[in-house]
Write a sequence for this structure.
């Protein structure tokens, strides 16, 4: 049971009936990886003693969890987590009757998406630009003749890495407002793959990584997959706190740093130029290798030099098309410190994480046609407008939209726990992202809240409808 990190410890902090809190804690432990397929959970009477409830309460909770497909019990073997419970369940209805937040107000959160069997999407982004579909179609049509009768240069472009690939990535970064030389740039299958490839470098793969406790969800998944030591550093409304970072470095806690400075996913904060300079100075003084992930931007920020420009000799810069063009055509762009790009190529060939030929051909065409900036302008207009809509509904004290980001961060008032709120939102027919999905295991500086995708709904009207439902939960929870 040691490796399960006592999933039931959080039950006491949850609001609502105890049997509901048990099911929520169990579900969260499975979703976040603290409980894995086949793990044994305590017998009902033992759990009752551990958390101070009656055996009848735990029996009721286990019965509900069993109906939801989370656990199963066998005489003589005990109760274990079902393999199926660990499968992704995004945008699927619950497998069992809803756990009502308040049975006296069932109609308050009525939502047609429950009847349709699909949850409304406030969890994942959608391409904001209305002109994107037409531009993508035109780009693919323009690519087809060249692909049908390829030149020697084009054949190399399709089969191996060439200066043409690096030139595409460098031009992308320059148009995003970042400095880039083609010899330092490599294309990958996405930003997450780019980060993974860096972390597999032979001379980096054992180094602990310093970062904020609430971070890009992909880093949390890497922590779960390979057991990489990730150490949380205090984080405030301007990003990682320099004094806390310096303290960790003085104690020898890590030699790598992961930061998001242009806009943080999921916290939606921006690290201002003066703090970027402080962080860069600390990284240089303590010889840190830095990964600066600015892939969450939907358009160029142009808000001063980033860390990768202040200390280029030790910083990997990550960009991506997923957020700034469309999630359906991911392409990661990595600018390595001088002399490190060849390791990226070696790592990619070892792991076979090649980028999509179609994706980088489309990006090349969009850059050549000089339409990328128009798409970015559309993106910026949509996310800024929707961010203001969300602030008007929740209030500025609770909601922080990310500038030039698909997402916004909703702080929860007293009485709400992230897992309880995400459960209530699903009951209301809405999928959101709770902070536990983005929080490092064992973190000391966690910030609890909800990440909301402002671009998930197709229209402003649909966004208002779903946010109003969530605001009703906050008001009546």
């Amino acid at each position: 049971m040691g490796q399960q990190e006592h999933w039931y410890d959080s039950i006491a902090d949850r609001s609502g009936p105890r049997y509901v809190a048990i099911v929520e804690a169990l579900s969260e432990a499975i979703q976040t990886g603290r409980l894995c397929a086949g793990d044994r959970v305590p017998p009902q009477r033992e759990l009752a003693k551990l958390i101070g409830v009656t055996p009848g309460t735990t029996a009721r909770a286990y019965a509900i969890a069993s109906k939801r497909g989370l656990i199963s019990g066998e005489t003589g073997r005990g109760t274990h987590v079902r393999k199926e419970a660990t499968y992704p369940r995004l945008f699927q209805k619950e497998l069992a009757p809803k756990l009502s937040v308040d049975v006296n107000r069932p109609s308050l959160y009525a939502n047609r998406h429950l009847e349709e069997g699909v949850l409304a999407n406030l969890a994942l982004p959608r391409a904001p630009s209305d002109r994107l579909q037409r531009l993508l179609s035109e780009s693919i049509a323009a690519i087809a003749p060249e692909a049908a009768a390829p030149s020697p240069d084009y054949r190399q472009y399709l089969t191996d890495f060439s200066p043409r690939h690096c030139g595409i990535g460098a031009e992308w970064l320059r148009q995003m407002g970042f400095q880039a030389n083609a010899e330092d740039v490599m294309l990958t299958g996405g930003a997450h793959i780019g980060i993974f490839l860096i972390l597999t470098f032979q001379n980096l793969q054992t180094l602990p990584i310093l970062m904020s406790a609430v971070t890009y969800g992909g880093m949390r998944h890497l922590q779960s997959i390979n057991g990489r030591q990730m150490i949380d550093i205090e984080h405030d409304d301007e990003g990682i706190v320099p004094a806390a970072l310096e303290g960790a470095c003085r104690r020898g806690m890590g030699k790598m740093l992961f930061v998001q400075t242009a806009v943080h996913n999921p916290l939606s904060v921006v690290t201002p130029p003066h703090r970027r300079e402080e962080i860069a100075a600390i990284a240089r003084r303590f010889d840190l290798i830095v990964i600066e992930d600015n892939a969450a931007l939907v358009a160029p920020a142009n808000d001063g030099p980033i860390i990768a420009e202040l200390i280029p000799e030790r910083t990997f810069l990550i960009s991506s098309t997923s957020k700034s063009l469309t999630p359906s055509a991911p392409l990661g762009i990595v600018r390595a410190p001088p002399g490190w790009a060849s390791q990226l190529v070696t790592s990619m060939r070892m792991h076979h994480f090649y980028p999509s030929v179609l994706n980088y051909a489309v990006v090349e065409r969009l850059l050549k046609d000089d339409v990328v900036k128009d798409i970015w302008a559309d993106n910026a207009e949509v996310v800024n407008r929707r961010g203001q809509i969300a602030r008007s509904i929740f209030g500025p004290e609770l909601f922080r939209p990310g500038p030039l980001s698909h997402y916004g961060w909703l702080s929860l008032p007293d009485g709400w726990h992230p897992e309880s709120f995400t459960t209530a939102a699903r009951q209301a027919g809405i999928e959101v992202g709770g902070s536990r999905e983005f929080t490092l295991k064992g973190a000391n500086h966690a910030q609890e809240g909800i990440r909301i995708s402002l671009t998930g709904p197709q229209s402003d009207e649909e966004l208002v409808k779903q946010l109003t439902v969530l605001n009703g939960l906050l008001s009546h929870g």
About this structure: Residues 88-116 have pLDDT under 50 and may be disordered.
